[in-house]
Design brief:
2 copies of one chain form a homodimer. The first copy, chain A, is α+β, with helices and mostly antiparallel strands. Chain A is 29% helix and 34% strand. The first copy, chain A, contains 4 helices and 6 strands; from the N terminus they run H-E-E-E-H-E-E-H-H-E. In chain A, helix 2 packs across helix 4. The longest helix of chain A is centred in the middle third of the chain and has 23 residues. At the A-B interface, helix 1, strand 1, strand 2, strand 3 and helix 2 of A face helix 1, strand 1, strand 2, strand 3 and helix 2 of B. Strand 6 of chain A pairs parallel with strand 5 of chain B, so a sheet runs across the interface.
Chain lengths: 194, 194
Amino acid sequence: MATEATKTRPARGPLNGVDTPTLFGTLDAVKGQPGLAKFQFRARNRWRSGTLSETTIDTFTGAGGEHPHKTTFKMQADHPAVLVGEDRAPLPVEYLLHALATCITGGIANIAAARGVKLTEVESKIEGDIDLLGILGLSKDVRNGYQGIRASFSIKGDAPPEKLQEIVEQSRSRSAVFDVLTNGVPVSLSVNAG
Amino acid sequence: MATEATKTRPARGPLNGVDTPTLFGTLDAVKGQPGLAKFQFRARNRWRSGTLSETTIDTFTGAGGEHPHKTTFKMQADHPAVLVGEDRAPLPVEYLLHALATCITGGIANIAAARGVKLTEVESKIEGDIDLLGILGLSKDVRNGYQGIRASFSIKGDAPPEKLQEIVEQSRSRSAVFDVLTNGVPVSLSVNAG
């Protein structure tokens, strides 16, 4: 989820499946009324059995109002057998890698369209290393989460390699998920028990 | 994704859909051979069109070897219309909320089983606030990612409220996703262009 404001904009039609005129229209609208940029996203989750639970995502707030998604999205997470689950869905930590890949990739498409670059391919591989001695309570010196994440992007389109590279870099520098993963975010938790 | 080591363990059968004997067996195996706790998770992503891309998750490394998931998991992310997408899938930033909810919930089930507590309900709501002035390049003072995330859990089971509350707190304190989101993680990115 990343895009950019440019001061001088050639008139461009839709490109890469991105509705570029609407993209620029949105930027102009938000410039005139910055409160439109305030969003709230939300998810509801329900435990099923063992390590399996299911999340429902159906509405969000932003651009001055409440919005339903076109569809009610449902997704699950589980642990694999080697981590005492039944492998009915990806692991929670795998969804972090998915979030990172898709955030930077969506931004690449938007930024390329805004710059008039037609893309033919964007692929990525994301890897995360984690030592479960932390989670398992077997070491106090090992963190619970990933110790490091590596992302590698491959991009092709009708622009020189340096320009394609710049588009990826611009997307990274404006990515919400990259920011959250690298810089962290305050998370508060409340419990209603009984 | 969280569990715990306990020094004194009553013999317990499976509970909450968690295979507790296997859980304790895993802990003993890892205690004897800490290298088994090193895992690597991975995701491959391919851009489709506009802000839509698709991730494939099929293998991971850990417990001393390479493992296929039971199924090849595929998942997509997109932007909604108000953010210049077609709303064909959840947003990347919504997947972060899903990852947080499912990580803490899976841990709750494991920890409750280990403590002999039968759960009847675990539900959660997660909200994240984000100001898109950062992403849109309209303010340098606004971060790209969430400014804050609030999680509220509701838990019911055959234990007093304080004990149920402790289980949630223990899961939070051992959650891989909670750690990554609150503390951040180094992310490196490489690009192959052209």
